[in-house]
Amino acid sequence: MSSVPTDLFPHPIVQAPMAGGVAVPQLAAAVSEAGGLGFLAAGYKTADGMYQEIKQLRGLTARPFGVNLFLPQPETADPAAVGVYAHQLAGEASWYETELGDPDSGRDDGYDAKLAVLLDNPVPVVSFHFGVPSREVLDSLRRVGTFTMVTATTAEEARAVERAGADAVIAQGVEAGGHQGTHRDDPETDGSGLGVLSLVAQVRESVGIPVVAAGGIMRGGQIAAVLAAGAAAAQLGTAFLAAHESGAHALHKQALTSPLYVRTELTRAFSGRPARALVNRFLREHGPYAPAAYPDVHHLTAPLRKAAAKAGDAQGMALWAGQGHRMARELPAGQLVEVLTAELAAARTALSAGGAR
């Protein structure tokens, strides 16, 4: 079995599997070809849709890549609260001339069907978000030669990942853009997560498996910092969101460095689960009232977000972004990997020189 990162990919750089059409095969291929680890996001896709993207990616690169899965979610949402939120969103539906989505459109994201595809057609790496897969699932993937990683946001969650038998843990700091990969959705802990450096240090002392650091990492110097804290590699999402090959909407890419969007915030407004996004009108108006109801709220708001994007209205879109968004660089993904690698080497040289004094 490979060990992160030396046997799988030359550079300790992992492209985050951003769902919603961002992590397309072209992006993953460019990252892998440059020596990082490219990722596809299976979230919100059908099993066949995932398979078709894997086939497309394999036609673009022979290098290792990963596929990310969402764990099925328990039925904990209060239907009454979801109904109230739907009533509050009625004005948005009218404004964008669309209907709200069906909050009961499914909770398992086609998990079993996707696993079946990945066992029949193994890929080098599979990662998991929103929980811990069973030991049986992890063992079955290991038997077909797949390296497994699971997201954790606390040292306790990391220990659960190790106990389940995963090969590595992704330590996701609170700075990360998009959804926090907490194993249990508890509104009382919203916004209380650790920063990536503190989290990596705690996780490194808690588990014996490799740690991949995630959360607000945009520069090679930051990669050097998390490696020094004990990580084996760094996972970057927002940094690749602006890449030429990214499937993100043009307005989303532009918003990362636009003076209109000066900060990010964790919100349930778009999906019902804590996720970090640029603060826009929709987030400001609906974030304070959004219930803890994932994926119910995700399904409910999906037509609104799609209509806002079609109308060219970034104020109604889910502009996922990490805290380092203003440091985004619009470069080809392969070139970005090269730049990050050069910055990492320079930072390591500076650290070595400092230590030699």
From TrEMBL:
GO molecular function: monooxygenase activity
Names of the cofactor(s): FMN
Top-level taxon of the source organism: Bacteria
Gene3D superfamilies according to UniProt: Aldolase class I
CDD domains: NPD_like (cd04730)
Family matches, as SUPFAM superfamilies: Inosine monophosphate dehydrogenase (IMPDH) (SSF51412)
Pfam families assigned to the protein according to its UniProt record, in alphabetical order: NMO
Catalytic activity: 3 propionate 3-nitronate + 3 O2 + H2O = 3 3-oxopropanoate + 2 nitrate + nitrite + H2O2 + 3 H(+)
Key words of the record: Detoxification, Flavoprotein, FMN, Monooxygenase, Oxidoreductase
Cited PANTHER family: NITRONATE MONOOXYGENASE-RELATED
Family: Belongs to the nitronate monooxygenase family. NMO class I subfamily.
Designated name of the protein: Propionate 3-nitronate monooxygenase
Species of provenance: Streptomyces marokkonensis
